[in-house]
Amino acid sequence: MPAVPFPLVDIRSVANAQNEWVALLLRAAEGSFDDATLQAMFGAPDLLAAVAPLDCILLLDSPALLTPPVLKLLPPNRVVLAVDARSLAEEGVAKRLAGLQLDGYRVLLDGPLPEGTAPPLALRSVSRLVGGDAFPPPPASLPALFGPHLARGVDTLASLRACANAGFSWFSGGYALDEAEADAEDPQQHDDGTTRRRLMTMLALLSRDADSHELETQLKQDPALSYHLLKLVNSAAFSSGLQITSFGQAISRIGRRQLQRWLQLLLYARHDPDGPPNLLLPVAARRGAVLEELCKRDGGDRDEQDLAFMTGVFSLLDRLFRTPMAALLRDLNLPPDVEAALLAREGRLGQRLRLCEISRPARAVLDGAGVDSLSWWQAQLRAYHWAIQVARNV
């Protein structure tokens, strides 16, 4: 642990209208960013390497934070600056932001302009927090020739649609959970749930150590599942260097541990090849990777890490199936601590799962989960790195 605690940073995914992650939004979880925090975040190569090829969007109160030492760490081709529009009331800010844009930075004006302040001609891309009297914004109210415009705090499907109609093209918020419920009620959906039910059957078979023949039988009954499994195990993100061409190879060469992980993730995969990605997939992958990394840091063995990963991935099953979690877990024979975490967010796993779910976790919440702020930062980076790769390969 460093002498001064590492700053608490909230990281949020940003997706486009096609449900593809395009950037990560970084904001201070306590107060505002300062010079020391920004240098701690970007001073090591971990951040930008972990989130590649995505951009980082920095939510800032003022461009005054962008001192020469900080700017030296922020490559213009990877970092987007979302600056509080209220700072334009200060002398010289408009000129400074225009200068940053000339230097290659993409600058978003975050929030409403100060009263009586005209928008600078050079700065036409905006960021807005959804909510309040100004939303939903009028259709086509943002200039189409500029952008991308970012809507953040988009927590419902209705808000997403309103923001898209207004001209926003980047979206951040919890609307993936709302979208999952809407999709489940949509009669136009191609998947009738058969593939996901068969996946749950296979996971139950793995949990009781069934023989490979039983697993292959399930795979052969579902062309969509077969396709997705072979595609996933041969992807760049997961490949062991061996070309897998049969279910027997996938089971015997890859191993049951990895097969179990991939089956857990395939629950969230798109089952219509022409459909958009399922936004629950990277969320579930991130949760699983965070819990696994924290377990590893605690000295947990391989089995304990697997259970931590499973807890994170399974935490969205009730959303995915629109079925009570208790009913879904009935046939999986999970350990009591995993069930307690999934059903009631109890125990160490439950506290850490809750940590993955809340916005802007306070230090007291981290302390309760037995996590220091530096471990939380590093676990988030590793988890986002893995979730990005999963989202691009499934």
TrEMBL record:
<dbReference type="InterPro" id="IPR013976">
    <property type="entry name" value="HDOD"/>
</dbReference>
<dbReference type="Pfam" id="PF08668">
    <property type="entry name" value="HDOD"/>
</dbReference>
<protein>
    <submittedName>
        <fullName>HDOD domain-containing protein</fullName>
    </submittedName>
</protein>
<feature type="domain" description="HDOD">
    <location>
        <begin position="189"/>
        <end position="380"/>
    </location>
</feature>
<dbReference type="InterPro" id="IPR052340">
    <property type="entry name" value="RNase_Y/CdgJ"/>
</dbReference>
